[in-house]
Amino acid sequence: IAFTSFCSWGSGLLIEKYRETPKKAKTINVLNIVLNLLILGVFKYYDFFVTSFANLFLDGDTDGLLLKIILPVGISFYTFQALSYSIDVYREKLKPTRDIVQFFAFVSFFPQLVAGPIERATNLLPQFERKRTFDYSEAVDGMRRILWGLFKKVVVADNCATYVDAVWSDIGSQSGSTLLLAAILYTIQIYCDFSGYSDMALGSAKLLGFRFRDNFLFPYFSRNMGEFWKRWHISLNTWFVDYVYIPLGGSRNGKARTIVNTMIIFLLSGLWHGADWSFVAWGGYHGLLLVLLILFNRNTKYEHVVAYDRWLPSFKELGQMLLVFILATIGWMMFRADNMGMFVEYVKGIFSPTIFSMPDIAGQNALLLMIAICFIVEWLLRHKCHGLDVRGISFAGVRWLVYIGVCLCIFLCGGHTENFVYMYF
Protein backbone atom coordinates (compact mmCIF):
# COMPACT_ATOMS: atom_id res chain seq x y z
CA ILE A 1 0.00 0.00 0.00
CA ALA A 2 2.90 2.36 0.74
CA PHE A 3 4.51 1.66 -2.64
CA THR A 4 1.35 1.95 -4.74
CA SER A 5 0.30 5.09 -2.85
CA PHE A 6 3.71 6.70 -3.41
CA CYS A 7 3.60 5.87 -7.13
CA SER A 8 0.10 7.35 -7.54
CA TRP A 9 1.04 10.46 -5.54
CA GLY A 10 4.22 10.94 -7.56
CA SER A 11 2.48 10.33 -10.87
CA GLY A 12 0.00 13.09 -10.06
CA LEU A 13 2.84 15.58 -9.59
CA LEU A 14 4.60 14.43 -12.78
CA ILE A 15 1.37 14.61 -14.82
CA GLU A 16 0.91 18.21 -13.68
CA LYS A 17 4.56 19.01 -14.42
CA TYR A 18 4.30 17.75 -17.99
CA ARG A 19 0.77 19.06 -18.59
CA GLU A 20 2.00 21.08 -21.57
CA THR A 21 3.45 17.90 -23.11
CA PRO A 22 0.33 15.72 -23.47
CA LYS A 23 2.22 12.66 -24.70
CA LYS A 24 4.46 12.58 -21.61
CA ALA A 25 1.54 13.19 -19.25
CA LYS A 26 -0.41 10.35 -20.87
CA THR A 27 2.59 8.02 -20.66
CA ILE A 28 3.02 8.72 -16.94
CA ASN A 29 -0.68 8.08 -16.32
CA VAL A 30 -0.65 4.83 -18.30
CA LEU A 31 2.50 3.60 -16.54
CA ASN A 32 0.96 4.26 -13.13
CA ILE A 33 -2.23 2.41 -14.12
CA VAL A 34 -0.23 -0.57 -15.42
CA LEU A 35 1.97 -0.64 -12.30
CA ASN A 36 -0.99 -0.60 -9.91
CA LEU A 37 -2.91 -3.24 -11.85
CA LEU A 38 0.23 -5.38 -12.19
CA ILE A 39 0.71 -5.41 -8.42
CA LEU A 40 -2.98 -6.24 -7.90
CA GLY A 41 -2.74 -8.94 -10.57
CA VAL A 42 0.30 -10.64 -9.06
CA PHE A 43 -1.15 -10.78 -5.55
CA LYS A 44 -4.73 -11.62 -6.47
CA TYR A 45 -4.78 -13.33 -9.88
CA TYR A 46 -1.39 -14.91 -10.65
CA ASP A 47 -2.13 -18.26 -9.01
CA PHE A 48 -5.65 -18.30 -10.49
CA PHE A 49 -4.48 -17.86 -14.08
CA VAL A 50 -1.54 -20.26 -13.65
CA THR A 51 -3.89 -22.91 -12.24
CA SER A 52 -6.36 -22.37 -15.10
CA PHE A 53 -3.52 -22.66 -17.65
CA ALA A 54 -2.21 -25.82 -15.97
CA ASN A 55 -5.66 -27.40 -16.02
CA LEU A 56 -5.95 -26.74 -19.75
CA PHE A 57 -2.47 -27.65 -20.95
CA LEU A 58 -0.48 -29.34 -18.16
CA ASP A 59 -3.01 -31.86 -16.79
CA GLY A 60 -3.36 -29.73 -13.68
CA ASP A 61 0.32 -29.93 -12.73
CA THR A 62 1.26 -26.70 -10.92
CA ASP A 63 4.38 -27.90 -9.09
CA GLY A 64 6.78 -25.01 -8.65
CA LEU A 65 4.53 -22.58 -10.51
CA LEU A 66 2.35 -21.10 -7.78
CA LEU A 67 3.46 -18.16 -5.63
CA LYS A 68 0.96 -18.77 -2.80
CA ILE A 69 1.24 -15.16 -1.62
CA ILE A 70 -0.97 -13.91 1.20
CA LEU A 71 -3.48 -11.39 -0.19
CA PRO A 72 -3.01 -7.95 1.43
CA VAL A 73 -6.21 -6.87 3.17
CA GLY A 74 -8.16 -4.32 1.15
CA ILE A 75 -5.85 -4.39 -1.90
CA SER A 76 -8.74 -4.29 -4.40
CA PHE A 77 -10.23 -1.25 -2.68
CA TYR A 78 -7.14 0.89 -2.12
CA THR A 79 -5.76 0.10 -5.59
CA PHE A 80 -8.88 1.47 -7.27
CA GLN A 81 -8.94 4.44 -4.88
CA ALA A 82 -5.33 5.37 -5.69
CA LEU A 83 -5.96 4.92 -9.42
CA SER A 84 -8.93 7.27 -9.36
CA TYR A 85 -6.61 10.02 -8.09
CA SER A 86 -4.03 9.85 -10.88
CA ILE A 87 -6.69 9.44 -13.56
CA ASP A 88 -8.67 12.43 -12.28
CA VAL A 89 -5.49 14.54 -12.14
CA TYR A 90 -4.81 13.55 -15.75
CA ARG A 91 -8.38 14.49 -16.68
CA GLU A 92 -7.90 17.82 -14.86
CA LYS A 93 -10.74 17.13 -12.44
CA LEU A 94 -8.53 18.10 -9.51
CA LYS A 95 -5.11 19.55 -8.79
CA PRO A 96 -2.44 17.16 -7.46
CA THR A 97 -1.60 17.44 -3.79
CA ARG A 98 2.00 18.04 -2.72
CA ASP A 99 1.27 16.93 0.84
CA ILE A 100 2.20 13.24 0.89
CA VAL A 101 0.78 12.75 4.41
CA GLN A 102 -2.64 13.95 3.29
CA PHE A 103 -2.51 11.70 0.24
CA PHE A 104 -1.49 8.62 2.27
CA ALA A 105 -4.29 9.44 4.73
CA PHE A 106 -6.74 9.57 1.81
CA VAL A 107 -5.71 6.13 0.51
CA SER A 108 -5.46 4.43 3.91
CA PHE A 109 -8.32 6.13 5.77
CA PHE A 110 -9.26 3.43 8.27
CA PRO A 111 -13.09 3.38 8.14
CA GLN A 112 -13.13 2.25 4.51
CA LEU A 113 -9.66 0.82 3.92
CA VAL A 114 -10.45 -2.89 4.16
CA ALA A 115 -13.83 -3.11 2.44
CA GLY A 116 -14.74 0.24 0.94
CA PRO A 117 -16.61 2.20 -0.11
CA ILE A 118 -14.16 3.23 -2.85
CA GLU A 119 -13.95 6.97 -2.34
CA ARG A 120 -12.94 9.37 -5.10
CA ALA A 121 -10.09 11.76 -4.61
CA THR A 122 -12.31 14.58 -5.86
CA ASN A 123 -14.62 14.03 -2.88
CA LEU A 124 -12.42 12.82 -0.02
CA LEU A 125 -8.97 14.34 -0.55
CA PRO A 126 -10.12 17.99 -0.22
CA GLN A 127 -11.67 17.06 3.13
CA PHE A 128 -8.18 16.26 4.46
CA GLU A 129 -6.94 19.64 3.26
CA ARG A 130 -9.42 21.81 5.14
CA LYS A 131 -9.90 22.32 8.84
CA ARG A 132 -12.68 20.27 10.40
CA THR A 133 -14.78 21.26 13.40
CA PHE A 134 -17.02 19.03 15.49
CA ASP A 135 -20.61 19.02 14.29
CA TYR A 136 -22.99 17.61 16.90
CA SER A 137 -25.85 16.80 14.50
CA GLU A 138 -23.50 15.06 12.06
CA ALA A 139 -21.88 13.08 14.87
CA VAL A 140 -25.26 11.96 16.22
CA ASP A 141 -26.33 10.79 12.76
CA GLY A 142 -22.99 9.02 12.42
CA MET A 143 -23.70 7.14 15.65
CA ARG A 144 -27.16 6.21 14.40
CA ARG A 145 -25.66 4.87 11.20
CA ILE A 146 -23.04 2.85 13.08
CA LEU A 147 -25.79 1.41 15.29
CA TRP A 148 -27.93 0.38 12.32
CA GLY A 149 -24.90 -1.12 10.58
CA LEU A 150 -24.14 -3.15 13.70
CA PHE A 151 -27.72 -4.40 13.81
CA LYS A 152 -27.61 -5.56 10.19
CA LYS A 153 -24.20 -7.19 10.60
CA VAL A 154 -24.35 -8.71 14.08
CA VAL A 155 -28.03 -9.59 14.37
CA VAL A 156 -29.04 -10.42 10.79
CA ALA A 157 -25.95 -11.26 8.72
CA ASP A 158 -24.05 -13.27 11.34
CA ASN A 159 -27.11 -15.35 12.26
CA CYS A 160 -27.84 -15.97 8.60
CA ALA A 161 -24.20 -17.01 8.12
CA THR A 162 -24.48 -19.75 10.76
CA TYR A 163 -27.41 -21.34 8.92
CA VAL A 164 -26.06 -20.76 5.43
CA ASP A 165 -22.58 -22.14 6.17
CA ALA A 166 -24.05 -25.29 7.72
CA VAL A 167 -26.19 -25.94 4.64
CA TRP A 168 -23.45 -25.19 2.10
CA SER A 169 -20.98 -27.44 3.93
CA ASP A 170 -23.20 -30.49 3.34
CA ILE A 171 -25.27 -29.84 0.21
CA GLY A 172 -25.91 -33.50 -0.60
CA SER A 173 -27.83 -34.28 2.57
CA GLN A 174 -30.14 -31.24 2.46
CA SER A 175 -33.71 -31.13 1.16
CA GLY A 176 -34.53 -28.91 -1.79
CA SER A 177 -36.60 -26.60 0.39
CA THR A 178 -33.73 -26.20 2.89
CA LEU A 179 -31.31 -25.39 0.07
CA LEU A 180 -33.76 -22.81 -1.27
CA LEU A 181 -34.14 -21.23 2.17
CA ALA A 182 -30.35 -21.09 2.59
CA ALA A 183 -30.05 -19.38 -0.81
CA ILE A 184 -32.61 -16.76 0.26
CA LEU A 185 -30.85 -16.26 3.60
CA TYR A 186 -27.50 -15.80 1.84
CA THR A 187 -29.08 -13.12 -0.35
CA ILE A 188 -30.11 -11.36 2.86
CA GLN A 189 -26.79 -12.12 4.59
CA ILE A 190 -24.53 -10.58 1.95
CA TYR A 191 -26.66 -7.44 1.79
CA CYS A 192 -26.80 -6.95 5.56
CA ASP A 193 -23.11 -7.82 5.91
CA PHE A 194 -21.78 -5.47 3.25
CA SER A 195 -24.28 -2.63 3.62
CA GLY A 196 -23.86 -2.95 7.40
CA TYR A 197 -20.11 -2.47 6.99
CA SER A 198 -20.72 0.50 4.71
CA ASP A 199 -23.08 2.05 7.28
CA MET A 200 -20.44 1.67 9.98
CA ALA A 201 -17.75 3.14 7.71
CA LEU A 202 -19.88 6.15 6.77
CA GLY A 203 -20.93 6.65 10.39
CA SER A 204 -17.34 6.46 11.67
CA ALA A 205 -16.22 8.96 9.04
CA LYS A 206 -19.01 11.36 10.09
CA LEU A 207 -17.77 11.28 13.68
CA LEU A 208 -14.42 12.55 12.41
CA GLY A 209 -15.95 15.22 10.19
CA PHE A 210 -15.71 13.38 6.86
CA ARG A 211 -18.56 12.70 4.46
CA PHE A 212 -18.55 9.62 2.23
CA ARG A 213 -20.94 9.06 -0.61
CA ASP A 214 -23.65 6.46 0.00
CA ASN A 215 -22.69 2.93 -1.05
CA PHE A 216 -26.09 1.20 -0.68
CA LEU A 217 -29.57 2.63 -1.18
CA PHE A 218 -31.98 -0.22 -0.40
CA PRO A 219 -31.18 -2.29 -3.55
CA TYR A 220 -33.74 -5.05 -2.89
CA PHE A 221 -36.48 -2.45 -3.32
CA SER A 222 -35.46 -2.04 -6.99
CA ARG A 223 -37.87 -2.53 -9.88
CA ASN A 224 -35.38 -3.91 -12.41
CA MET A 225 -31.75 -5.03 -12.42
CA GLY A 226 -30.61 -1.72 -13.87
CA GLU A 227 -31.99 0.07 -10.82
CA PHE A 228 -30.52 -2.66 -8.58
CA TRP A 229 -27.00 -1.90 -9.83
CA LYS A 230 -27.51 1.80 -9.24
CA ARG A 231 -28.30 1.02 -5.60
CA TRP A 232 -25.86 -1.85 -4.85
CA HIS A 233 -22.15 -1.17 -4.11
CA ILE A 234 -22.53 2.22 -5.75
CA SER A 235 -18.90 3.24 -5.33
CA LEU A 236 -17.59 0.25 -7.31
CA ASN A 237 -20.23 0.43 -10.03
CA THR A 238 -19.72 4.15 -10.63
CA TRP A 239 -15.94 3.54 -10.65
CA PHE A 240 -16.30 1.03 -13.49
CA VAL A 241 -18.70 3.33 -15.33
CA ASP A 242 -16.44 6.39 -15.08
CA TYR A 243 -13.08 4.72 -15.69
CA VAL A 244 -13.95 1.78 -17.97
CA TYR A 245 -17.46 2.01 -19.48
CA ILE A 246 -17.38 5.66 -20.59
CA PRO A 247 -13.80 5.52 -21.97
CA LEU A 248 -14.87 2.48 -24.03
CA GLY A 249 -17.64 4.59 -25.56
CA GLY A 250 -20.44 3.94 -23.08
CA SER A 251 -23.81 4.01 -24.80
CA ARG A 252 -22.85 6.63 -27.38
CA ASN A 253 -22.04 4.32 -30.30
CA GLY A 254 -25.21 2.32 -30.83
CA LYS A 255 -26.92 -0.58 -29.13
CA ALA A 256 -24.38 -3.23 -30.18
CA ARG A 257 -21.46 -1.31 -28.71
CA THR A 258 -23.47 -0.56 -25.56
CA ILE A 259 -24.05 -4.29 -25.08
CA VAL A 260 -20.35 -5.10 -25.54
CA ASN A 261 -19.30 -2.38 -23.10
CA THR A 262 -21.89 -3.55 -20.56
CA MET A 263 -20.60 -7.13 -20.70
CA ILE A 264 -17.00 -5.94 -20.34
CA ILE A 265 -17.62 -4.00 -17.14
CA PHE A 266 -19.68 -6.80 -15.57
CA LEU A 267 -17.10 -9.46 -16.42
CA LEU A 268 -14.39 -7.22 -14.96
CA SER A 269 -16.56 -6.59 -11.92
CA GLY A 270 -16.94 -10.34 -11.42
CA LEU A 271 -13.18 -10.87 -11.70
CA TRP A 272 -12.55 -7.96 -9.32
CA HIS A 273 -14.59 -9.74 -6.67
CA GLY A 274 -12.46 -12.86 -6.71
CA ALA A 275 -10.02 -15.05 -8.61
CA ASP A 276 -12.36 -17.85 -9.63
CA TRP A 277 -14.49 -18.63 -12.65
CA SER A 278 -17.61 -18.64 -10.47
CA PHE A 279 -17.11 -14.88 -9.93
CA VAL A 280 -16.63 -14.35 -13.66
CA ALA A 281 -19.84 -16.33 -14.29
CA TRP A 282 -21.63 -14.20 -11.68
CA GLY A 283 -20.51 -11.03 -13.46
CA GLY A 284 -21.46 -12.45 -16.85
CA TYR A 285 -24.88 -13.47 -15.52
CA HIS A 286 -25.66 -9.95 -14.34
CA GLY A 287 -24.25 -8.52 -17.55
CA LEU A 288 -26.67 -10.68 -19.55
CA LEU A 289 -29.59 -9.51 -17.40
CA LEU A 290 -28.69 -5.88 -18.22
CA VAL A 291 -28.23 -6.77 -21.89
CA LEU A 292 -31.78 -8.17 -21.99
CA LEU A 293 -33.11 -4.90 -20.59
CA ILE A 294 -31.16 -2.97 -23.24
CA LEU A 295 -32.33 -5.23 -26.09
CA PHE A 296 -35.98 -4.90 -25.14
CA ASN A 297 -35.71 -1.21 -24.17
CA ARG A 298 -36.78 -2.02 -20.61
CA ASN A 299 -33.85 -0.43 -18.79
CA THR A 300 -36.10 2.18 -17.19
CA LYS A 301 -34.26 4.84 -15.20
CA TYR A 302 -36.35 5.61 -12.13
CA GLU A 303 -36.01 9.05 -10.55
CA HIS A 304 -37.49 8.10 -7.17
CA VAL A 305 -37.49 5.14 -4.83
CA VAL A 306 -40.37 2.69 -5.30
CA ALA A 307 -43.77 3.87 -3.93
CA TYR A 308 -42.26 7.31 -3.44
CA ASP A 309 -45.49 8.99 -2.33
CA ARG A 310 -47.31 5.93 -0.95
CA TRP A 311 -47.03 3.61 2.04
CA LEU A 312 -47.26 0.42 -0.02
CA PRO A 313 -46.15 -0.60 -3.52
CA SER A 314 -48.62 -1.43 -6.25
CA PHE A 315 -49.05 -5.08 -7.29
CA LYS A 316 -46.89 -4.37 -10.33
CA GLU A 317 -44.11 -2.87 -8.21
CA LEU A 318 -44.34 -5.75 -5.74
CA GLY A 319 -43.96 -8.21 -8.62
CA GLN A 320 -41.00 -6.27 -9.99
CA MET A 321 -39.23 -6.26 -6.62
CA LEU A 322 -39.89 -9.98 -6.18
CA LEU A 323 -38.41 -10.70 -9.61
CA VAL A 324 -35.31 -8.62 -8.79
CA PHE A 325 -34.89 -10.55 -5.52
CA ILE A 326 -35.20 -13.90 -7.31
CA LEU A 327 -32.71 -12.93 -10.02
CA ALA A 328 -30.29 -11.60 -7.40
CA THR A 329 -30.63 -14.84 -5.39
CA ILE A 330 -29.64 -16.93 -8.41
CA GLY A 331 -26.59 -14.74 -8.88
CA TRP A 332 -25.62 -14.92 -5.22
CA MET A 333 -25.66 -18.73 -5.40
CA MET A 334 -22.90 -18.46 -8.03
CA PHE A 335 -21.11 -15.96 -5.82
CA ARG A 336 -21.28 -18.23 -2.76
CA ALA A 337 -20.20 -21.41 -4.54
CA ASP A 338 -16.52 -22.37 -4.43
CA ASN A 339 -16.69 -23.26 -8.11
CA MET A 340 -19.23 -23.69 -10.89
CA GLY A 341 -19.51 -27.43 -10.20
CA MET A 342 -20.66 -26.67 -6.68
CA PHE A 343 -23.20 -24.16 -8.03
CA VAL A 344 -24.64 -26.74 -10.44
CA GLU A 345 -24.85 -29.31 -7.63
CA TYR A 346 -26.66 -26.78 -5.45
CA VAL A 347 -29.21 -25.89 -8.14
CA LYS A 348 -29.88 -29.58 -8.84
CA GLY A 349 -30.44 -30.10 -5.13
CA ILE A 350 -33.01 -27.31 -5.02
CA PHE A 351 -35.01 -28.70 -7.93
CA SER A 352 -35.31 -32.16 -6.45
CA PRO A 353 -38.66 -33.63 -5.33
CA THR A 354 -37.88 -32.53 -1.76
CA ILE A 355 -38.37 -28.89 -2.74
CA PHE A 356 -42.01 -29.32 -1.72
CA SER A 357 -41.11 -30.47 1.80
CA MET A 358 -40.84 -28.21 4.83
CA PRO A 359 -37.38 -26.64 5.15
CA ASP A 360 -35.31 -27.20 8.25
CA ILE A 361 -36.06 -24.00 10.20
CA ALA A 362 -35.73 -25.37 13.72
CA GLY A 363 -34.58 -22.65 16.09
CA GLN A 364 -34.68 -19.93 13.41
CA ASN A 365 -37.80 -18.08 14.56
CA ALA A 366 -35.80 -15.25 16.14
CA LEU A 367 -33.73 -14.87 12.97
CA LEU A 368 -36.80 -14.66 10.77
CA LEU A 369 -38.28 -12.04 13.12
CA MET A 370 -35.08 -9.94 13.01
CA ILE A 371 -35.02 -10.14 9.20
CA ALA A 372 -38.64 -8.98 9.08
CA ILE A 373 -37.86 -6.06 11.41
CA CYS A 374 -34.82 -5.09 9.33
CA PHE A 375 -36.69 -4.94 6.03
CA ILE A 376 -39.83 -3.32 7.49
CA VAL A 377 -37.70 -0.56 9.02
CA GLU A 378 -35.78 -0.03 5.79
CA TRP A 379 -39.00 0.05 3.80
CA LEU A 380 -40.43 2.73 6.08
CA LEU A 381 -37.23 4.80 5.78
CA ARG A 382 -36.45 4.04 2.12
CA HIS A 383 -36.60 7.77 1.34
CA LYS A 384 -33.70 8.38 3.75
CA CYS A 385 -30.02 7.44 3.64
CA HIS A 386 -30.12 4.58 6.15
CA GLY A 387 -32.51 2.56 8.27
CA LEU A 388 -32.04 4.53 11.49
CA ASP A 389 -32.29 8.01 10.00
CA VAL A 390 -34.96 9.16 12.45
CA ARG A 391 -34.17 12.86 12.30
CA GLY A 392 -37.79 13.58 11.33
CA ILE A 393 -39.08 12.28 14.67
CA SER A 394 -39.40 15.31 16.93
CA PHE A 395 -40.29 13.44 20.15
CA ALA A 396 -36.97 12.48 21.77
CA GLY A 397 -38.56 9.71 23.85
CA VAL A 398 -39.52 7.76 20.74
CA ARG A 399 -36.02 8.12 19.29
CA TRP A 400 -34.45 6.80 22.49
CA LEU A 401 -36.85 3.85 22.60
CA VAL A 402 -35.69 2.98 19.07
CA TYR A 403 -32.02 3.24 20.08
CA ILE A 404 -32.50 1.10 23.18
CA GLY A 405 -34.49 -1.47 21.23
CA VAL A 406 -31.75 -1.80 18.58
CA CYS A 407 -29.05 -2.08 21.26
CA LEU A 408 -30.98 -4.83 23.07
CA CYS A 409 -31.35 -6.74 19.79
CA ILE A 410 -27.60 -6.49 19.20
CA PHE A 411 -26.69 -7.74 22.69
CA LEU A 412 -29.40 -10.39 23.02
CA CYS A 413 -29.73 -11.70 19.45
CA GLY A 414 -26.24 -11.28 18.03
CA GLY A 415 -24.88 -14.31 16.19
CA HIS A 416 -21.44 -15.92 16.33
CA THR A 417 -18.70 -13.52 15.26
CA GLU A 418 -18.15 -13.70 11.51
CA ASN A 419 -15.63 -11.88 9.33
CA PHE A 420 -17.02 -9.32 6.92
CA VAL A 421 -17.67 -11.04 3.58
CA TYR A 422 -15.95 -8.31 1.55
CA MET A 423 -12.75 -8.41 3.61
CA TYR A 424 -11.74 -11.31 1.35
CA PHE A 425 -11.82 -9.13 -1.77
Task: Give a structural overview.
This protein is an all-alpha fold and 425 residues long. Helix content is 64%, strand content 0%. The protein is built from 15 helices and no strands. It has helices at 2-17, 22-57, 75-90, 100-107, 121-129, 136-168, 176-207, 225-231, 234-245, 255-273, 277-295, 315-336, 340-350, 365-380, 396-413. Helix 2 (22-57) runs antiparallel to helix 3 and helix 10 (255-273) runs antiparallel to helix 11.
The residue ranges in which pLDDT falls below 50 over 5 or more consecutive positions are none
Fraction of residues in β-strands: under 5%
Distance between the termini: 15 Å
Q: What structural category characterises the helix and strand content?
A: mainly alpha
What series of H and E elements makes up the topology? HHHHHHHHHHHHHHH
Mean residue pLDDT = 91
Radius of gyration: 23 Å
Assign a percent range to the helix content.
55-70%
Instruction: Determine the oligomeric state from the structure.
Output: single chain
The number of helical elements comes to: 15
What would you call the shape? Answer: globular
Number of extended strands: 0
Please outline the major beta sheet. none
